[in-house]
Hints:
Elements: E1 8-14, E2 22-30, E3 37-40, E4 58-65, E5 68-69, E6 72-76, E7 79-82, E8 89-97, E9 107-108, E10 112-115, E11 123-124, E12 132-136, E13 144-147, E14 150-151, E15 158-161, H1 164-168, E16 172-175, E17 178-184, E18 187-194, H2 201-219, E19 226-234, E20 240-242, E21 246-252, H3 259-274, H4 301-318, H5 324-339, H6 349-354, H7 367-370, H8 374-392, H9 399-413, H10 420-431, H11 436-443, H12 451-456, E22 460-464, E23 472-473, E24 476-481, E25 484-490, H13 495-499, E26 506-510, E27 513-514, H14 523-526, E28 533-540, E29 543-550, E30 552-553, E31 559-563, H15 569-578
Parallel strand pairs: 1-12, 18-19, 19-21
Antiparallel strand pairs: 1-2, 2-8, 3-7, 3-11, 4-5, 4-8, 6-7, 9-10, 10-16, 12-15, 13-16, 14-15, 17-18, 20-21, 22-31, 23-30, 24-25, 25-26, 26-27, 26-28, 28-29
Helix pairs in contact: 2-3, 3-4, 4-5, 4-8, 5-8, 8-15, 9-10
Amino acid sequence: MTSKSQVKVEFEVGFIEPQAHYAEVEMNISGLIKDYIDVKMPVWAPGSYLVREFAKSVEGFGAAAGAKRLRFEKVSKNAWRVYAAKANKIKIKYRVYAFETSVRTSFIDDSHAFLSSTGIFMYPDGLLKLPSTVVIKPFSGWNKVSTGLESVPGKAFTYIAKDFDILFDSPIEVGNQDVFDFIAAGVKHEVAMYGGGNYDKERLKVDMAKVIEQATAIYGENPNKHYTFIVHNFSASGGGLEHLNSTVLGASKNGYNTEKGYQGFLSLVAHEYHHLWNVKRLRPIALGPFDYDSENYTTSLWVAEGFTSYFENKIMLRAGFSTPLETIQALLNNIATVSNTPGSKVQSAAAASYDAWIKSYRPNENSGNTSISYYSKGEAIATLMDLEIANATKGIRSLDNVMHDMYALYYKKLGRGYTDAEFKSMVEKISGISFTAFWEKFVNGTDPIEYQKYFAYAGIDVKDDNSGSNEPYLGVASKKMEGNIIVASVSRNSAAWDGGLNFNDILISVDGFPIDSALEKMPIIASHKVGDVITVTVKRDVVIKELKLVLKANPNVKLVPTIKEDATESQLLVREAVFN
Length: 580
């Protein structure tokens, strides 16, 4: 039997036709002496909960032992069986087509290559713990590689991963990106900017460091030796994907010199950097060791992502990029979003987490009526939980203590993920009170968010500016397509829902007045009262239909806070613990 310590895996990635969006991958396996070897391509990228079928982009697969070509066959959607005939060394070659612009998928053109590792590298079945070496062969004229992988001393563009989990968690940017670095929390941080932009490197060094220092302060340590930001600057872009010691960010190349654009970028940095602890190390038990062949289900994405969205706000506040009032308003805006989504009354935070694989990344026109984002619902839960903990402990403890102690116990001491029950137990330990009813209402249930009750703990009054307005409301979203105004979605239990408006209906007129813009904003709608009946004419397929709609009152909330100057001492303690 061959010892795993004798098995070596080496990759070489080159680019013969980058303009055609291809990477050329060579995989050398030695010491694995078997009749056949199965090699697999992951079907998903951790952090993005959708089976993306990366194997669909593989072509030109072939294998050889020295000069002898080896027979192979496809044995599953993402696995190739190479009949190695007990050869000591085999060479596998394949090409990967990469032309999808996102933070989680590979993209190659004549200017650069972004390699999202789960869609580039295969692994020998059952041997995810093997180390591997990666050699990058940049295309002619490219001279830089940026990655979180460890460099091999003395070898240009050569990197090592101690196992495939590390390799799959380490994206690689190849090209002529603008690279700068800085020290924060005692760690060297490299920023690789692709695409240009109006960013100020010196300003970013200072401000990104502030974000990093505040995130590190929550957990008391920064577990990295080095960290890499890969930033893709396009005319319009966004989003990010976390990795163990790196992240990939999408940014607007000309947005850095506006207050909104710059704040948005720093908020994205705060969010993805907080993942360094939450989800990359402190994780739900289902998220590691990973199964790269199929979905990895968990009911705790509301913690993994929602809490990270919450702490993104707190980190920005503590770093000096927002005020307490701005932070409070941002958190209330999120709560309003949850409250105004009909699906929040249908799907719980736990269910949204579990069904991410089939719902969150596959939305349709009815998604808003049937589901809720585990990001936004999780952020709302974190807001209430933080206020509840601070109130129960008179401002001595907060959600910071929960996250710090969870990280210390489950990642550092036990070296494993946590269960839902264990997370709840820690919240109760820190707060000293039961959270059973809280869990039933907000985590596993779909109860309305009691924002007034919880913000009152901190001496903050919350008013719904839409309350009592009796504004007529149709409950329809529309879009312009080929000169027509088309129904994009219909809200559950609205006038449009009850009256039978359908997705993809072409809107023609209201009470005889032509529709040439968003239906909700038409003056004729505003001139009516709740209870009035309007006639909406639509074209459905080739049939003209007249629908009678009974206008209802706008059910949406618009939340506005007032920070009370006459707050009690206990309220001030809660406010200090949560919003400072």
